[in-house]
């Protein structure tokens, strides 16, 4: 039986769960999730959202049980679905759930660096990524595999160090640990199955991927409008953060123009003060709700 609804796998619980659903909502998918629902039917598009464990997402997408997935690069790489996997396309980093896999030791550790962990034990839930990192440095250490609560290992004298995800750093701090090395940088990414799709579903998948691209690109962008003397134009354009060529509109007043630009980077008060000092007036900064390039 061919399916007539696209399936996208997202994490049910954890660091990606809320972000994934809110991203899909911003891409126009109408869903009202209840806590216990594992399959969410999108009302306004032929899409079902499957909520699963993050470690299962890549495998589901690889064998075509789901066409799309949102997963952390860390999970993807650890499960052996990194770059150039024959069954999965890594489409676009989503700019959310940024974190890093780091090696951390007790605060009191006074080694000079990672080399001092040679012959020691390192506890982790990411044995593959850790091994790859140690091998690349020619460092021999024993990897103690744990499925969670890795940060207690040094206190229990199970290991001299840990290799775990760090996002805010609060967990390390709470457990008296300090990071000494970054093993892998991660963020959430959209993945797509390489299995062939019926044309109608392929169209839905492409539309959704494009919308997600737009949502990610719009994140943090602002629209700036201001008036300026024509001869200050070059200086003002240079001050606009992350803007391409702005739109310049002549004003009824001689030698005055209006400048409109999409800014891809943060617009701070300092930016506005700089623009003002360069001769700009009536400066407006407005958020952009949607953008399609
Ligand atoms: C990771 C990691 C730490 C925490 C770090 O766990 O194992 O416990 O996040 O985050 P912080 O630097 O902001 O304190 P995760 O939330 O992925 O859950 P899990 O270990 O149960 O998979
Ligand atoms: Zn997990």
Task: Throw out a few tags for this protein.
binds 1-O-pyrophosphono-5-O-phosphono-alpha-D-ribofuranose, Alpha-Beta Plaits, binds zinc ion, D-Maltodextrin-Binding Protein, domain 2, alpha/beta, 293 residues, 15 strands, 6-stranded mixed sheet
CATH class of the largest domain: Alpha Beta
Low-confidence stretches: none
The end-to-end span amounts to 37 Å
Beta-strand content estimate: 25-35%
The CATH topology of the largest domain is: D-Maltodextrin-Binding Protein, domain 2
Assign the structural class, choosing from mainly alpha, mainly beta, alpha/beta, alpha+beta, or little secondary structure. alpha/beta
Largest sheet: 6 strands, mixed
Ions and ligands: 1-O-pyrophosphono-5-O-phosphono-alpha-D-ribofuranose, zinc ion
CATH superfamily of the largest domain: Periplasmic binding protein-like II
In total, how many domains does the architecture comprise? 3
Strand segment count: 15
Mean pLDDT: 94
- Output the strand order for the largest sheet: 2-3-1-4-11-5
In the CATH classification, which architecture of the largest domain applies?
A: 3-Layer(aba) Sandwich
How do the strands and helices of this protein lay out in sequence?
Elements: E1 6-11, H1 17-26, E2 39-41, E3 47-52, H2 54-62, E4 68-72, H3 73-78, E5 88-93, E6 99-106, E7 121-124, H4 127-136, E8 142-145, E9 161-166, H5 170-174, E10 177-186, E11 188-193, H6 199-218, E12 222-229, H7 233-239, E13 247-250, E14 256-263, H8 269-277, E15 281-287
Zinc ion binds at residues 14, 54.
């Amino acid at each position: 039986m061919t399916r007539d609804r696209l399936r996208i796998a997202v994490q049910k619980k954890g660091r990606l769960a809320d972000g994934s659903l809110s991203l899909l909502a911003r891409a126009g998918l109408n869903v009202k999730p209840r806590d216990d629902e594992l399959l969410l039917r999108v009302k306004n598009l032929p899409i079902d959202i499957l909520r699963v464990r993050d470690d299962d997402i890549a495998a589901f997408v690889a064998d075509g049980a789901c066409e799309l997935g949102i997963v952390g690069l860390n999970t993807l790489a650890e499960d052996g679905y990194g770059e150039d996997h024959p069954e999965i396309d890594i489409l676009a980093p989503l700019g959310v759930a940024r974190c890093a896999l780091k090696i951390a030791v007790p605060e009191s550790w006074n080694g000079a660096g990672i080399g001092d962990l040679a012959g020691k034990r390192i506890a982790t839930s990411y044995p593959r990524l850790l091994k790859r990192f140690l091998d690349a440095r020619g460092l021999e250490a024993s990897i103690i595999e744990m499925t969670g609560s890795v940060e207690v290992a040094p206190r229990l004298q199970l290991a001299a160090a840990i290799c775990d995800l760090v996002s805010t750093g609060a967990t390390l701090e709470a457990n008296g640990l300090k990071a000494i090395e970054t093993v892998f940088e991660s963020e959430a990414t959209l993945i797509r199955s390489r299995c062939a799709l019926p044309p109608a579903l392929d169209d839905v998948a492409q539309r959704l991927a494009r919308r997600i691209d737009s949502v990610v690109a719009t994140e943090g962008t602002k629209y700036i409008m201001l008036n300026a003397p024509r001869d200050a134009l070059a200086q003002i354009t240079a001050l606009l953060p992350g803007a391409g060529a702005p739109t310049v509109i002549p004003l009824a007043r001689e030698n005055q123009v209006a400048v409109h630009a999409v800014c891809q980077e943060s617009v701070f008060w300092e930016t506005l003060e700089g623009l003002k000092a360069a001769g700009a007036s009536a400066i407006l900064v407005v958020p952009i709700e949607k953008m399609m390039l």
